[in-house]
Structures are given as structure tokens and as C-alpha cells.
Fold Diguanylate cyclase.
Amino acid sequence: QAKADGRNTMSFFDPEMQAALNARAALEADLRRGLKQGQFELHYQPQVDYTGALIGAEALLRWNHPTRGLVQPDAFIPVAEDTGLIVPLGAWVLDTACAQLRAWSDTLDTAALTLSVNVSARQFRQADFVDLVLSALDRSGANPRCLKLELTESLLLVDAEETIARMAALKAHGVGFSLDDFGTGYSSLSYLKRLPLDQLKIDRSFVRDLLADPNDAAIARAIITLAESLGLSVIAEGVETVEQRDALARQGCLSYQGYYFGRPGPVEALFKHRA
Ligand code: C2E
Ligand code: MG
Ligand code: MG
Ligand code: MG
């Protein structure tokens, strides 16, 4: 049929390319079905302070696939983004996260916990994104101050004014913002200053070699100093050892997330994290 529509679609006859296209189409159909059949779940990874006390969690999406088992986000988020399925999927994530926050608000022990939720650029740019978040909060009865949206630098490069306006609208209701994977993108410092952020999240690539690579240590230190000067909090992701935690603490970073404290898992496991 490539010939029939008269375009140069030579690549359609490349068997490898064709196989990739087929796999992608199958994945898309599978995703659509999974969403309809409730195959997605949120896992929670602890965030702790220097004393090891639980301060919050990050919600991480998992696909409980009937034949493939638990599928990690890197295997399906990119396709969900390309196909637009990230929009309904992201709405489900927000609803589920807000319901969890609402449940935590019932006990003194858990009422102050914050929940960080990842937001894709494509999702954030939907015209009704602000309403979507506010109505998820409303429906659940969750405290907006306990919800933290994680954005990435890439999102901030497109249409700065609109981005700032949306963030400000949500912030007016108490919603917080964290800049995820910080240091891996290209945001300019003058732009960063204008964003209504609450937190910078040091990318785990800098944490990994913190003790061995002086450049990574310098970058981590610079991010911590930057957060301080901008009046933002800072958290490190990917903390796998106590030595990494201590090195971060010496530089002034006092909030952590990583395998050392706990892997992402069902919500009950959050409360069994390592201090
Ligand atoms: P992210 O937001 O940077 O999440 C942190 C990732 O690092 C998670 O991978 C987490 O499991 C992993 N991680 C945490 N601690 C450690 C550690 O100590 N060592 C190592 N090696 N890894 C650690 P995960 O769950 O596979 O998620 C990957 C990415 O998928 C996330 O990166 C985020 O960008 C995206 N994602 C996850 N859930 C959602 C979601 O609900 N919506 C959207 N739009 N994206 C999501
Ligand atoms: Mg994140
Ligand atoms: Mg991250
Ligand atoms: Mg990261």
C-alpha cells in the first residue's frame, strides 16, 4: 500500500523498521486496554530527612501487565507521551495520588507527608491542566500543600510565560513544585529565578559518582548552593549508600531519596524504610 499512496515510504519495506512499528502499535493498543482494565498502579518511594524520618514519597507509575508482569515506566512512558495516552494516564496518576494523600490526612503520623507526582511536558501543556489538578484535589479532599508536582527542565524551555502562569495558578492553591533531574537539562539561571519553584531535585547521575568524581561532587555542591540562594529546598535522588548521604549532608543537602532508604513499592512498605 506504500506504492498506492504514491509517497516515498521505502522505509516501510525495511523489515526491522516494520517490526519496530508493529511493536509500537501493539504497545499502544496494549496501553489503551491496560488503562481501561485498571492495570496501572502507583508505587511509593520514601523521602527522608537527615535523621531518617519519613517526610514524604514519590509516586512512581507501574504497569501490572497480564503477561509481561510489572512493567517499569521507561518501557511505556515514552510511547504514552508520543500517542497522547499520557493525558488520561496522567489524570489517573493524579487522582490516585490525591486519594492516597487524603487517606494519609486521617492520621497524625502521616498527615504532614508530601507526595511528589511526576508530570510529563505533554500533560502539563494540556489547556485544562490546572483544572485537572484542582479537580483531583477537590474530589479527593486532599490538602494541596501536600501535593508536589515534579517537572523537568525540558518543559520549562517552551513557552515560559504560559508555564509560569500555570505554576502560579496552582501555587496559589498551595500546590508545590520540584524541578526533577536537575542539572541534566539546560535551564538558564535567570529563567530559573522567575519560576515559582519550591525544590530542586539533584539528578541521580551526580549522586552516583559523588565520592569518586570531583566534578560530580562540584556539581552537587553548586546545585545545593543555588537552591539555598534561590530560597528553595533541595533533595537528592538515587542515594544508594550512607557515604553518599553523608557527603550530601556535609554540603548542606538534608533530604534524600534512594535505594539506601527504600525502593519504590506498595504504600505499606513506605513505613518500613531504613532510617
Ligand atoms: P524520576 O522521576 O527521575 O524517578 C526516579 C527514578 O529513579 C525511578 O525510576 C526510581 O525507581 C529510580 N530510583 C530511585 N532511587 C534510586 C536509586 O537509589 N538508584 C537507582 N539506580 N535508581 C533509583 P522509575 O520508577 O523506573 O521511573 C523512571 C522515570 O519514569 C521517572 O524518573 C519519571 O521520569 C517517569 N515516571 C514515573 N512515574 C511517572 C508518572 O506517573 N508520570 C510520568 N509522566 N512519568 C513518570
Ligand atoms: Mg521524579
Ligand atoms: Mg528524578
Ligand atoms: Mg532522574
About this structure: The two ends are 61 Å apart (CA to CA). The CA atoms of residues 123 and 248 lie 32 Å apart.
